[in-house]
Design goal:
106 residues; mainly alpha; two-stranded antiparallel sheet
Length: 106
């Protein structure tokens, strides 16, 4: 763990880990809110206070599906009713010509 931390990785706090879902909910929701604010607004409008649990449950279902899995979700995201496809990664831009893509990557 110390070696990974020295290379810039963050150590998770077990108190924030959701064992039933096998993920850190705050990281997932924070990523979506920070990188896709318009989609998050739509989710809140459609699902209200259940937006977080709806997203997390859908993510877990996609990760566990035969056509899902971690790499698939990282490459292509996952869909949630009311928001379309939510991205779970941002690819490094091939060049610097598209400022929107550069901003998303940053």
């Amino acid at each position: 763990v110390d070696q990974l931390k020295q290379q810039g990785w963050l150590e998770g706090d077990h108190q924030h880990y959701d064992r039933a879902r096998a993920l850190y909910p705050g990281d997932v929701i924070g990523w979506i809110q920070d990188t896709q604010p318009d989609a998050w607004k739509k989710l809140r409008r459609v699902h209200g206070v259940d937006a977080e649990s709806t997203v997390l449950d859908r993510l877990v279902k996609t990760l566990a599906s035969k056509t899902g899995g971690t790499l698939e979700v990282l490459r292509r995201g996952f869909s949630v009713a009311g928001a379309g496809t939510l991205a779970m990664s941002q690819a490094r831009p091939e060049d610097s010509r598209n400022q929107t893509v550069n901003n998303c990557y940053a």
